[in-house]
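Hi everyone, sorry if this is the wrong subforum. Our group has a chain we'd like a structural model of before ordering constructs, and none of us has done structure prediction before. Sequence below.
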Amino acid sequence: MLTSLILLLIFSVDVHAKDFNIAGFGARNDGVTLNTNIIQGAIDYITGNGGGRLVFDSGVYVTGSIYLKSNVILYLKEGAELRSSGNPFDFQKNKYTGWTSMIFAIKQSNIGIMGKGTINGLGYVTANNLVTYIHLGLVTDPLNLDRPSEVNRPANIDFKECTNIKITGITLKNPASWNQIYDQCRGVYVDNIRVDSKSYWNNDGIDIVDCDGVTIKNSSFDAADDVLCFKSFDPSKVCQNVVVDSCVVRSSANGLKFGSTNKGGFKNFKITNLQIFNTYRSAIALEDVDGGGINNILIDGIKAYNIGNVIFLRVGDRRSEGRTPSFSGVTIRNIYAEIASSKPDSGYRYEGPFEDLPRNIPPSVIAGLPEWRIKNVTLKNIEIVYPGGGNPHYAFRGISKQELESIPELPYAYPEFDMFKELPAWGFYVRHADHISFDHIVLKSKEKDYRPAIVLDDAKGIQMKDTKISEPENGKKKEIILNNSTTTK
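Answer:
Right subforum, don't worry. Here is the predicted structure as C-alpha cells:
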C-alpha cells in the first residue's frame, strides 16, 4: 500500500518533453568558462515556454548557483559534468532555505535531473577557498574547528517545498557540505544514482527533511558523514511515506539514520535490501531526541560488514520543548552483520573521530528515558557476529544493580551508539523499554568477553524467543542479565 501511494506521486514530465540543448544558448563545455548566467537564462526560457529538457552534451560546464524552475529537467548526457567553479563568491546563500547550494529549487513542480552525467561540487577546493577568505576577513563565519559552517558551504542540491522531483541515473560527487537536500517536498523519486560524497566535512549522502512520498532505490552511496539521512526540522511537519530499496551504503558515520533532528516525526517507512560496509558508526540509527516521534517503521533485509555498530535506538530530551516523543511500532528483521574489531573506516580521507574512550566495542543499544520509553519493537531473524575480547582492565562496567543504575541517562546529549562509554553487554543493551520482541536472534562472539551478551535494565514485557548466544570459553557465565525487568517466551 505504501509503495502504491508513493508511485502515485511520481510524475513523468520527461515523456514527450521538448529538448533544448544548452549549446544553443551559448554555454561552453571547456571546463573554464563560467556558465552560470547562461544556464539560468536557459532554465528561465524553458519554464516560460511550456517546459522541457535542458540537454548537456559531453564536456565540463563550470557554474555557480542556479535555480531550477517548474517543468524543467536538467538532462546530463554521459560524459557531461556540471562542475563548481571552486569560487565561494559564485554561490548564493538563499535566505529562505538557509543553505548555500549549486542547484536550488524553491516551490517548483515537475522538476528533475536525469541522464548519465555528473554533478561535481569540487568540495575540497571550494571549502578551502572559503577558509582562506574567512581568514582574510572577506567572509564572516564562526569557523569552528577551522571548518566553515555547513550552511555557508555549497551543497550540490537544495530543493525546498517542491512537488514531483525525479533524480535518476546521475553521479553526485564532491559537495562542499551536505550533498543533496530535499526539504518539505512531495513526490521525490531517486533511482539508479551514484553518490561519492567524501571530499569534505559534513558530506552526507542524501538528506530527506519533512518530505511526503519518497522513493530511493537501486543507488550506491559513499559518504564521509551520514548516508541515508532522514530529518524533521519543523514541529508542524512529518517525514512520512518513504520507500528505500536495493541500495549500497558506506559511511564514516551512520548508514541509515533517522535524526538526529526530529521535531515533527517520522512515520510509514519501508526500507529493504540494503548492503552496508566499512561504516564507522551504526548501520541502523533511529533517534528521537527532539520530541518528534518514530512510528510504523519497517527495516527488512540488511547485510552489513565491517561496521562499528548494528542497531542504535534512542529517545532523548535534547530539544523536546514541550513535545512528547512516541517511539513505537518499529520492526527490524532479516539482518546479518559483522562488527569490526578495529576502526571500520580507517584509511578514508575523512574518518569518523575516536570518541568517548576508554571503552570496549559497544553492543547494539535500545535506550529510552524513564519517562519516555521505547515501545513495541520487533527484532526478528537477526544474526550478529561480534569480535568479542572485551577487556575489564581497559574499561569496565559491572552488572550489579548499583553498577547498572549508575549508567548515566544523558538525556540532553547528542545521540550516538558510543555515548554511554562502556556498557555492560557485548550483544544488546536495553534500557527503559517495553514490549521488545527478540525472535530468532543469533549473537556470536569470536573471542571471550568479560561482559554478558544481553543486559535488560528497566525493560518490561521483553519477549525472548529462540535467542541463541555463542561465546568461546564463557564457562558458566550468565549471558542474559535482568535488572528491574520482565521477560516472556
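For your construct planning: Residues 444 and 470 are 5 Å apart (CA to CA). The chain has two domains: 9-167, 226-489.
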